[in-house]
Amino acid sequence: MSKAPLTSRLTIDSLIDAQVDFMQQWLHKQAEPLSMEAWRWFGAQPLSNYINCDHLQHLMKDWLLNQPMTEVMRTDIRDILHTIIYHPVNDNVPLSELVDDTQVQTLANYIGSHEQQRNVLIHTLVGNETFADLLTQTLYHAINDFMETTLDKAGGVGKLMKLGRSSFEKATNRNLDEKLQTYLHRNIKDLTRKAEANAQAHLSNQEVARLLIMGWDRIKDQPISELQTYLSDEPNNSSIDHIEAGIQQSYNRLRLSPYLHSLVSASIDTWYANHQSDTIATIAASLHINEEAMAQCSNTLLPIVYDAIETPWLTAHIRDMLEAFYAQPAVKEGLALNHD
């Protein structure tokens, strides 16, 4: 008995079911090579075919700069900073792991060879008024403590000296402590100014560089965790919270600044002028994204693609597409198939 023609045993619905199943299996098998072929095609396209300078300007300004950082992202930044700063590994890694000796040498030589920077450094170290005030108070307390201790142990002589001090204050209508502080303040400031002028006049470039390098040598072997001593980790007084809030304040002010927008526009114009004729692959290669990297990325994403192929929503879309195809009068008439 001869078999009936294939077309007489198929309906449009059963044909669609078979095609949906075939397409899903075919896509599952071909997902990896298709993704690489798509990358090769995309990589060969010139940037200017799809992206112009205005697109980049819109992306950077309207989407990035005009949008504040979300609270979720800010929380993540704070948590990550806390993890990095207070990680136990910092107890066993020296500061020299962060900064190489050659970098310090280069910076020291640069500062030492530039007069303005050198003078700023000397002023900070020697001529700083805050340092002079601190030294004044330190000397005052040391002298006052010495005098009080000496007078208490001097017996009658000490009482006589205290009487003389009282007489001096009554005669001059001035407190001796105040007089002493004024004298120290005036003279120490004068000494620090002279010391600063002398240092600026006589410290050579090599000596300034040597001082910086010596300072680095004293601290470079300390663990990175030493930096934690300058931070507070109290729940209501976290240094990390203050740092992140300060960065956010600066960021929010700058991102809306016409000044920053002007610089961003100029930077985008420069970049686009340099790369508008490049292919996508050439630009990607400058970021170390090549075919090997894309193959690794493709392998990582394949489980997602496989799951997507098998989802009900994709199955439904494929079915809708095929039903629309077979619903065309010319197709229905040509195939001579019917629904169940």
Structural overview:
The chain contains 15 helices and two strands. Strand 1 (233-234) and strand 2 (237-238) form a beta hairpin. The protein is 73% helix and 1% strand. Among the domains are: 1-31 and 288-340, no CATH class; 98-222, no CATH class. It has a two-stranded antiparallel ribbon with strand order 1-2. With 340 residues, the chain is an all-alpha fold. The chain has helices spanning 12-43, 53-65, 71-85, 101-112, 115-125, 129-153, 156-172, 176-202, 205-219, 239-255, 258-275, 280-285, 291-309, 312-326, 329-335, and strands spanning 233-234, 237-238. Residues 1-8 have low confidence and may be disordered.
- Determine the N-to-C terminus distance: 25 Å
Low-confidence residue ranges: 1-8
Query: What is the beta-strand fraction?
Result: under 5%
Give Rg in angstroms.
39 Å
> Main sheet, how many strands, which sense, barrel?
2 strands, antiparallel
Mean pLDDT: 84
Summarize the structure.
This is DUF2785 domain-containing protein. The chain has 340 residues and is an all-alpha fold. Among the domains are: 1-31 and 288-340, no CATH class; 98-222, no CATH class.
Give the tags.
73% helix, 15 helices, mainly alpha, single chain, DUF2785 domain-containing protein, disordered N terminus, 340 residues, elongated, two-stranded antiparallel ribbon
Topology:
Blueprint: H1 12-43, H2 53-65, H3 71-85, H4 101-112, H5 115-125, H6 129-153, H7 156-172, H8 176-202, H9 205-219, E1 233-234, E2 237-238, H10 239-255, H11 258-275, H12 280-285, H13 291-309, H14 312-326, H15 329-335
Antiparallel strand pairs: 1-2
Helix pairs in contact: 1-13, 1-14, 2-11, 3-10, 4-9, 6-7, 6-8
Organism: Psychrobacter pocilloporae
Protein name: DUF2785 domain-containing protein
